[in-house]
Design brief:
Elements (H helix, E strand, L loop, with lengths): L1 H71 L6 H11 L7 H7 E4 L2 E3 L3 E10 L4 E10 L2
Antiparallel strand pairs: 1-3, 2-3, 3-4
Helix pairs in contact: 1-2
Length: 141
């Protein structure tokens, strides 16, 4: 009796599975497509985030280079022009000479009559959506 019920169950399973196979395949494909779309979306987000980090790192390095250039110049020179001339010769990857001219700003107001200046280097990046600002002091010693 047990053998007979097992055979009936086995036949019933095979009979039902013939019709279910196509539906199961379609469901598996839909689930797989949803998973792939999710993974591609996450990959796209990761690539954009990586690109932003690269831009910010480049802007930070550019600001630091400008600050070092300012420190190397004699007190009272046009720091912005000197910095842009230095960077123009060796612009960061992906930047043109025009980008360097437009995206870097250096302000240096006197804090104490010809003795101390507050130097602010601002680098705009990612189509001017973000900026990186660095401040330091320059003294006339």
């Amino acid at each position: 009796m047990l053998k007979r019920s097992r055979e009936l169950c086995h036949k019933a399973l095979f009979r039902c599975s013939r019709g279910d196979t196509l539906i199961e395949l379609l469901v598996a494909m839909v689930v797989g497509a949803i998973v792939i779309v999710g993974l591609l979306s996450a990959l796209g987000t990761a690539v954009l985030a990586s690109h932003r980090v690269d831009l910010k790192t480049t802007a930070r390095d550019l600001a630091r280079s400008c600050m070092e250039c300012v420190k190397a110049q004699p007190y009272g020179t046009d720091y912005e022009e000197a910095c842009k001339e230095l960077i123009k010769d060796n612009p960061p990857q992906g930047w043109t000479e025009e980008d360097v001219r437009e995206d870097i700003s250096i302000e240096f107001p006197d804090l104490y009559a010809d003795r101390l200046q507050l130097v602010t280097v601002t680098v705009f990046y990612d189509n001017d959506r973000y900026e990186y600002e660095l401040q330091g002091y320059k003294s006339n010693h």
